[in-house]
Input
Amino acid sequence: MSKSADKMQRDVKRAKDTLDRLTPELIANLVRRAGTRSTGEKPSQGPRGKGSHSDPTLTAVVRRMTAENAPDPVFDTVKELALNLHEMMQLALKIDDKIRFVLEAGERRKTAELPECLACQEITLRPRSGYCPACYAAWTRAGRPYRTTFEAERKAQ
Output
């Protein structure tokens, strides 16, 4: 086996091992542990909204807008994990498309057809307006009538 085949097999095995560890229970546990970002225990001093009473929602909004969030490595890690899994899914779709492209190349070559004239159904190398040179000349001599009636007349001949 070639080096590239060995490398591809190692990569596939490593990806499968990693994805096999991500069971639905583990994913649910990770999401539960990272449920919401911790806001930190700050004293009531700091940015406040206008007014004489305490408004914890407004304080949280102002704190978030001023980027005073407490670091939360668990929340950040689970969020990054979700983004990485989404990227892996997109890469898997690209890999599927590339495999399909390589495996179906022979069939694509078989089904590649030369264009046919829309009027007489003959194979033509250089169609003009969808017609072979003879049908195109006849169409222009006839004053370029409606295509459907012209094509029906040519097929009937």
Observations:
- The radius of gyration is 33 Å.
- The chain has a mean pLDDT of 81.
- Residues 73-103 form the longest helix (31 residues).
